Amino acid sequence: MGSPAFSVPALRALHAAGHEIAAVYAQPPRPAGRGQRETPCPVHQAALELGLPVRTPAGLRKDAAEHAAFAALGLDAAVVVAYGLILPAPMLDAPRRGCLNIHASLLPRHRGAAPIQAAILAGDSETGITIMRMDEGLDTGPMLLKSATPIGPADTAADLHDRLSAIGAELILRALDEDPPAAPQPEVGATYAPKLAKEDGRLDWSEPAAALDRRVRAMHPWPGAFTALEGAPLRILAAEPLPGTAGAEPGTVLDGSLRVACGDGNALRLTRVQKAGRAAMEAETFLRGHAIPAGTRLG
After folding, report:
1. How far, in Å, CA of 79 to CA of 26, rounded?
2. Do domains 5-193 and 198-289 have the same CATH topology?
3. d(Cα 257, Cα 267) in Å, to the nearest integer?
4. pLDDT-derived band of residue 34, with 50, 70 and 90 as boundaries?
5. Are the C-beta atoms of residues 112 and 195 closer than 8 Å to each other?
């Protein structure tokens, strides 16, 4: 049970390992692209390539017929990774070994919809994958296995997405093969990572440079970090924190290299940017066609 690209390696790993996959559940096809054609999600597409049956219910909570169809599959386990629909109790209880979730954090830290981005924003030194037996709470079920990976100073959400997706595929195979005992999650240290909105990408120049650098990396590729330049949005695709200029107002461009004053007296140098409707460019290339003199205010 999964939908986005993050879920595909687990599906392929289960299939390659010889597990009998009774069905693949994915979110329904949705309009996409310029023509807004109905397009299957990545898991749906992968399942079709593998010749697996696909079910795409629009909802599950009150659909008794769907609950019965799920139970009739006679599952040993259901593997759930970024599915996007809440499983009601009749479905959680149907598989013999339960519904096993591949969650992209070291639970109980960063429960919720955006754990990868939350780990970068918080300045965590590591993150990882937890295999959890699902209950009716939000990522509160007992844990079976964990695997950690460091968060490097230049890691973006896209970097961690790919790394954690691969780790999750490996770890779910171990969980199914080893059937490890489940341990309850401690409540100490539990945090919640809500679903991201586009506004989460806005840079607040009153924040410290290190925090803004983390936001740029956490919001890549979606929703993307941005600021305002002359009343229009400017996307920030990459940046680096640097020493600033004492007394400079936050959001002020300090020099010709797009070094911008931040709230802690340090600066964030914008290294890759994009104007609306234009191609992404390295800062040096961008500045050759779009002069931004020192003293310009961003925000």
Report:
1. 12
2. no
3. 11
4. confident
5. yes
Question: What's the CATH fold of domain 5-193?
Answer: Rossmann fold (3.40.50)
d(CA 39, CA 42): 9
At residue 198, does pLDDT exceed 90?
A: yes
Q: Of 163, 260, 161, which Cα lies nearest the Cα of 217?
A: 161
Instruction: Tell which residue, 238, 153, 168, has the closest CA to residue 10.
Output: 168
CATH architecture of 198-289: Roll (3.10)
pLDDT range class, residue 99, cuts 50, 70, 90:
very high
Q: Judging by DSSP bridges, how do beta strands 232-242 and 267-275 pair with one another? A: antiparallel
pLDDT above 70 covers a percentage of the chain that reads 100
If we measure between CA atoms, which residue out of 94, 50, 104 comes closest to residue 69? 94
Reported residue count of the chain is: 299
* 156 pLDDT higher than 90: yes
Please say whether the beta carbons of 205 and 212 come within 8 A.
yes
- Contacts for 5 with CB less than 8 Å, ≥ 6 apart: 42, 165
Nearest to 298, CA basis, from 246, 259, 243, 247: 259
The residues spanned by each domain of the chain are: 5-193, 198-289
